[in-house]
Automatic annotation (TrEMBL):
EC number, UniProt record: 2.1.1.-
CDD domains membership: AdoMet_MTases (cd02440)
Gene, per the UniProt record: LOC120275168
Family the UniProt entry places it in: Belongs to the methyltransferase superfamily. METL family.
UniProt keyword annotations, A-Z: Methyltransferase, Transferase
Highest taxon of the lineage: Eukaryota
Protein name: tRNA N(3)-methylcytidine methyltransferase
Entry-linked InterPro entries: METTL2/6/8-like, SAM-dependent_MTases_sf
Role noted for this protein: S-adenosyl-L-methionine-dependent methyltransferase.
């Protein structure tokens, strides 16, 4: 039975189909439904640095305690395991894994040097969490640059896509890698990739590249764990028409992107990258805004995907 802390993450408070019908029959929301050509400039690390600078306070940090409930594979894995957290932010996904599993090592990347340093401060200062040898953050704009070679399993390192010459941007990113990962030798691939509210921040046309890189870092038979914004989430419906920059794609005022996924799009992206679908569903949760008493209908996409063995 779910505890009070985790209950809201396991409940299905409303039917997504009913929400879809409500949205699609509301004339004021029609602009969300119409396809439009992309009109956005590239979303870069500067925009995310600005975002994290604005939300750098401890109040913004919320440890994702539900993670091990929604993805029990992280908790039940036997023996030593390696996790790659893509888009680690301030460490809200990393911390519950480190806290619960003392035999896991986490490699975590983000495109902002400031937020990587902030994640290190939070993780290393958390009482009761042994992290000095288990948390390895590094700087990388994964939306346009390849993962470092030491992450990959040996067979993937020899694939044609890995042997292509690096661009100048790739070389620059490698030079900017943090000191605690520069000396890493090949770790032989990872057992889990976590992609939690990260892919939606990548331009749609770059998503296949990111997923292909994630696929290559996984050992055969291992898992990618996915959660992100779903179609008709409250946040999507609050965007004004002038912030729409593509079909189901929006830009916040500081320049960061937010895409809202349907199950079909997620399935096509992941299967196209070579993954096997294990679980894929909408998670629909109703919560209340304590300040104004308004009901908030949140929609997330929950997925588990495996690399074929």
């Amino acid at each position: 039975m779910a505890t009070a802390t985790t209950a809201e993450y396991h409940s299905r408070d409303f039917d997504w189909e009913e929400l879809r019908d409500e949205v699609e029959n509301d004339p004021s929301l029609l602009y969300h439904l119409t396809p439009s050509a992309p009109s956005l400039p590239p979303c870069n690390a500067d925009a995310w640095r600005s975002f994290h600078r604005r939300h750098s306070s401890g109040k913004f940090f919320k440890e994702r305690r539900y993670l091990l409930e929604e993805f029990p594979e992280l908790r039940s894995s036997d023996g030593f395991a390696k996790v790659l957290e893509v888009g680690c932010g301030n460490g809200s996904t990393v911390l519950p894994i480190l806290r619960a599993k003392k035999n896991m090592v986490i490699y975590a990347c983000d495109c902002s040097a400031e937020v990587v340093e902030r994640a290190k401060e939070i993780i290393f200062s958390t009482i009761g969490v042994s992290s000095e040898q288990r948390f390895h953050p590094f700087l990388l704009d994964f939306s346009v640059n390849k993962f470092p070679e030491w992450l990959f399993c040996s067979s993937c390192q020899n694939s044609p896509s890995r042997n292509q010459s690096s661009s100048s941007a790739d070389a620059e990113e490698e030079m900017m890698m943090l000191n605690d990962t520069k000396a890493q030798c090949c770790i032989g691939g990872v057992d889990f990739v976590t992609l939690i509210f990260t892919l939606s921040a990548v331009p749609l046309q770059n998503m296949p590249f990111v997923l292909a890189e994630c696929h290559s870092t996984l050992k055969p038979g291992c898992l990618l764990l996915f959660r992100d914004y779903g179609l008709y989430d409250m946040t999507m419906l609050r965007f004004p028409v002038e912030q729409k920059v593509g079909y189901r794609e929006y830009m916040r005022l500081e320049g960061t992107l937010s895409y809202f996924f349907s199950l079909d799009i997620v399935r096509d992206l992941f299967v196209g990258a070579g993954f096997i679908e294990l679980e894929l569903e909408y998670c629909c949760v109703t919560s209340m805004n304590r300040k104004n008493g308004k009901k908030m209908q949140r929609v997330w996409v929950h997925g588990k995907f495996a690399k074929p063995s």
